[in-house]
Design a protein that fits this description.
By secondary structure, this protein is an all-beta fold. The chain folds into two domains: 176 residues; 351 residues, Methylamine Dehydrogenase, Chain H, CATH 2.130.10. It is built from one helix and 44 strands. The strands form eleven sheets. Strands 1, 3, 4, 37, 42 and 44 form a six-stranded antiparallel β-sheet that branches. Strands 2, 35, 36, 38, 39 and 43 form a six-stranded antiparallel β-sheet that branches. It is elongated.
């Protein structure tokens, strides 16, 4: 009999590819990677957990549709949150008090409000039916309507001016879904009539977002260009409104933006957002689709449920600093309207994975506070909490994280050679003690069996997570107990297979924290056989 030979799966840096045949995936790609992130040089680790921040909102049944930290001159930070109106209008809260402190109610219900900092105030856009408002982050001042300001669904600070887009549901002489307006320099309470224009007026589309080449939501723009996204198109506006040098030019793309709050400027890449074709990246010249590997999860196909396109505008995106990620949460078809599928794009490896959470989400936001690392916060859809994520937490508020990976179809050198599959070794690092790990082998073709499932529990040493050792002194010179060793930080688990098949696909599932460093299959070549099909 021939000797056993290894087939190694140690590089998962290609993320998941749900659109290609399992037999045609790249060596570093998998069919599915759920609740895991790409780590180190190709290994996988369980995603970060969540941790509740403070107490629940006074109305926990109302979705938290916006989280924003208002950083004031002098170093004070006001943690703001907007809850969606259900029986009433949207409400602005300070969410780090017990109970939450109400700043005031808006005059309408709007699912995707926009907030930014300008002239030491939070500027709030609550949709095209409500005038822009401001807040200094205190309940005593409340919500203050900006003098002379338009209604607006989207806002941006550009070249020291406050810009507003999509200023009315119906077109008038100076407002409409395709209208943009601009304040005076550093003055949100002055809006000259000359500082207004239309972007392809009455083309059947609405302005969906205003974006710039900066990650922050305040400050001076690094370029003189602001990007105006409509449903199926994008425009570059150069200069300021009312100036002779102002120009407006359509970009070379038929992709716009279908979800305003998915727009993110990613340093070194460009502007990423969700379009009618999937996620796209605009680098200032070219507009490129980057989500082909996730197309079945976006539009639905085979075993995959697509997104909820009638409610796609609710989708929210943000970024994570460590590791560098673009994160976008979307509603799924047949769901309750909450954001139940989270797409994660690794900006270094340019690969996708997907995350799910037991709690329904309504928003997510990267908070940038002086003297602190950037933090990602989630807002609940129906439980009223603000939660921290991507901060190293090992559980979802004390609940173990369930994860899975479905590999590509692994075969011998010929692709469909008959092999005897002896066993699978999986190297884990830092996995939660006593975590059950389940593996299912799917064979191709379906002979002798279609699949086989095994479960192994990470071993422990007397149920302890650490134990005494001999130390690092020369052999025989250090006493027992002179060092404390960590138990089960790097573990090889063996899963016996014992079957003959042309190829094998591996589904590995578990719960808890930890990392997969790699997998190794031990196989033996079998003799070639005749085809079972007889030619006529």
């Amino acid at each position: 009999m021939g000797e056993l030979k290894p087939i190694l799966l140690a590089d998962f840096s290609g993320g998941e590819n749900t659109v290609a045949s399992p037999h045609l995936l790249k060596p570093n790609q998998s069919q599915q990677v759920v609740n895991m992130l790409l780590d180190e040089h190709g290994s996988l680790r369980v995603r970060d957990g969540t941790l509740i921040q403070g107490v629940s909102a006074p109305r926990p049944d109302r979705p938290i549709v916006k989280i924003y930290d208002l950083n004031l001159v002098g170093g004070t930070t006001k943690p703001l949150a907007i809850q969606l109106g259900t029986s009433g209008n949207n409400t602005l809260w300070i969410h780090n008090t017990n109970p939450w402190t109400s700043i005031g109610d808006f005059s309408s219900i709007y699912r995707t409000p926009d907030v930014l900092t300008f002239t030491n105030l939070a500027i709030l856009a609550n949709g095209p039916t409500e005038v822009l408002k401001s807040s200094d982050g205190t309940a005593a001042t409340g919500l203050v309507a900006l003098t002379g300001a338009p209604n607006a669904a989207h806002i941006a600070v550009h070249l020291g001016f406050l810009w507003a887009g999509n200023t009315a549901a119906a077109t008038t002489a100076t407002t409409g879904p395709s209208s943009i307006s601009m304040s005076d320099l550093s003055n949100p309470n002055s809006w000259p009539g000359a500082n207004q224009t239309f972007v392809s007026k009455d083309d059947g589309q609405s302005i969906q977002a205003l974006s710039q080449y900066t990650i922050a939501e305040s400050g001076i723009s690094p370029t003189a260009t602001i990007i105006i996204w409509k449903d199926f198109s994008g425009y570059e506006a150069t200069g300021v409104l009312g100036a002779a040098s102002f120009s407006l030019q359509k970009i070379k793309s038929d992709m716009g933006c279908v979800a305003p709050r998915t727009v993110q400027f990613v340093s070194g890449f460009g502007i990423i957002r969700l379009t009618h074709r999937g996620f796209a990246l605009y680098d200032g010249v070219n507009d490129t689709l980057i989500s082909e590997e996730e197309r079945p999860r976006i539009f639905g196909r085979d075993q995959y449920t697509g997104l909820d396109w009638p409610n796609i505008s609710r989708s929210m995106a943000t970024q994570c600093a460590n590791p560098p990620l673009y994160i976008c949460a979307c509603p799924i078809s047949g769901g309750n309207g909450s954001l139940q599928r989270v797409f994660v794009f690794d900006l270094v490896r340019r690969s996708w994975t997907v995350c799910t959470y037991d709690v329904d989400l309504a928003t997510l936001q990267l908070t940038l506070n002086p003297g602190q690392l950037p933090a990602v916060l989630f807002g609940d859809y129906s439980e009223g909490y603000v939660r921290r994520s991507f901060a190293g937490d090992l559980t979802d508020d004390s609940t173990a994280i369930t994860w899975s990976i479905l590999t590509r179809a692994v075969s011998g050198g010929g692709g469909f050679d008959r092999l005897y599959w002896r066993r699978l070794l999986v190297k884990f690092f830092g996995v939660t003690v006593t975590t059950p790990i389940t593996v299912t082998f799917f064979y191709g073709p379906t002979s002798p069996v279609g699949s086989k499932t095994l479960t192994v529990i990470i071993p422990t040493i007397n149920n302890l997570t650490s134990f005494l050792g001999w130390g690092l002194d020369p052999w025989g010179t250090s006493a027992w107990g002179s060092a404390t060793m960590t138990a089960i930080t790097d573990t090889d688990l063996e899963f016996p297979i014992g079957s003959v098949a042309n190829n094998v696909t591996i589904l590995l599932t578990g719960s808890g924290s930890g990392k997969i460093r790699g997998m190794e299959l031990h196989v033996r070549q079998k003799a070639l056989t005749r085809s079972t099909v007889v030619n006529a």
